[in-house]
Fold this protein.
Amino acid sequence: MTETLGQRIKRLRVERELNQVEIHAATGIDRTYLSRMENKDVASQWEKMCALADLLEVSLDYLRHGSQIPTFKAGSEVIEDPDERSLLRMWRAMDEPEKAALRAVAERLASKADPSNAA
């Protein structure tokens, strides 16, 4: 079973040795609301904001700040295809070992697609 948002929040809080009162003091999030999120998996504002951002096809950065991470540009090239943007978002979320593994797979696929590159 996958970890719920509430379970993940609680795990991260406990790993950092923080209690709910400390979270409230640092963020202003009501302790009882945090408890309900952690224990009853109450739908959070976060989930609602993610759903809204997905529906409107904008980033959470844009909803929160009115700006977003610029779309990748190389010269005058802008990524318009949603699949390409999705791949770029996934790439940006990966750690270095994951990126290295993906590079290796992509290089292997590219060499199969172009027989002139065969070693």
The chain has two domains: 1-67, 70-119. The mean pLDDT is 77. The radius of gyration is 20 Å.
